[in-house]
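BUG: 3D viewer hangs when loading the predicted structure for this chain

Environment: internal workstation, default settings.
Expected: structure renders.
Actual: progress bar stalls at 90%.

Input used:
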Amino acid sequence: MKLKASIDYGVRAMMYLAIKGGICSSKEIAEHMDIPRDYLIQLGLKLRNAGLINARPGKNGGYTLVKDPAEVSIHQIVAAFEETYKDPRHPLTGKHVEDIIGGKVANAYALISSSVDMFLDRVTIQDLLDAGETKEDKRAFFERIQSE
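Structure tokens produced before the viewer hung:
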């Protein structure tokens, strides 16, 4: 699964802020995380509006995390960029949902969507930082997150 650019860049920026632990300029984050600066500024507004970062304008301004990295889930970052979760591109409607196959497919889609949301709600910025520090593989990471 490939993440949208906004989510990818949002996670990068949040992780950078968590690692640095202080105020960071948009220029600094953009250069270190390979994010177009103008786009980062737009993302910063959404992250600020979601209550995830502080944004201070001006020469000595920049961004800081509002919460501890262990309190920021990836789901919160995703939600910052998606005002409403998208429904399926072509949802099953009418008679198709009512038949047995259509009902099973609609239910399966709902389970996939809610499972991804639940998993991302369990994964925090701190979890990702810890996994990077220990070079944890994906299986160990998944098992650790599931056991928490």
